[in-house]
Amino acid sequence: MTSGFGLGLRTQHYNDFLAGPQPVEWLEVISDNYMVDGGKPLAMLDQIRANYPMAMHGVSMSIGAINGLNKDYLRKLKTLEQRIEPMWVSDHLCWTGAHGRNMHDLLPLPYTHEALQIIKRNVEYAQEVLQRPLVLENVSSYVEYKSSEMTEWEFLTEVCQATGCRLLLDINNIYVSAFNHGFSPTSFIEGVPAESVIQFHLAGHLNNGDHLIDTHDHPVCDGVWDLYRQALLHFGYVPTMIERDDNIPSLSELISELDMARSIANDVLNSKIAV
After folding, report:
1. 203-246 pLDDT, tens digit each
2. What contacts 217, CB < 8 A, 6 or more positions away?
3. Fold held by 5-274
4. What are the boundaries of each domain within the chain?
5. CA distances (Å), 189 to each of 67, 131, 174, 234, in order?
6. Separation of alpha carbons 22 and 202, rounded Å
């Protein structure tokens, strides 16, 4: 596992990364954008990959699919994984559609024992295909299921313990969901197995007063930075990246935001060592 701080690779910044070295230790790519047989995206990816370690992050595995995973999707994912040899392969703890239709949204699961058995089966199958632990990200959510029998962090813990998968902890998503549903974000952070967390996401959201929407089109807000501090105190060092998917600014502006994450991590971890 690499150390340092990363960014999500976006087309707007291809030329910046090709022009010369940037103060970024690694890059995360959206797997689905490169699961093709050829073309410019793959050509660009190959060139940039020569200079930066990468992580693969998917949005359409639909690990909560009741009828099992899409074998063709996993085949293409495996082909890309073999091509760029990522540090890890991640997707979301969610479902994305039904009856062969992808809704292109990250839909929350009911946290029930029945759903847990489906997730276990699908994670084990994905790991068998990929021949590596799968990394799952917590999603932001706006509705809850009355049928849920445990908290989200308890559910994540059960999945990790049963399958050996790892966690991508999205700090912004914890913040958004905690606000929307009225739970303690600290309880979430302290409730997941520390040894399973291998990556952090930081991102921005839209504040609509009585609810938050995870938009990835704003800078990281003060509340999420504070929660990041709590996560660092609890987990120690974890590779961290800034995620921006809309209203994408210049690379230099994103790097400035990433430097904020570096500064916070250094301050928190150095003070932790001093104590």
Report:
1. 999 999 999 999 999 999 999 999 999 999 999 999 999 999 99
2. 204, 206, 244, 245, 246, 247
3. TIM Barrel (3.20.20)
4. 5-274
5. 31, 28, 8, 8
6. 19
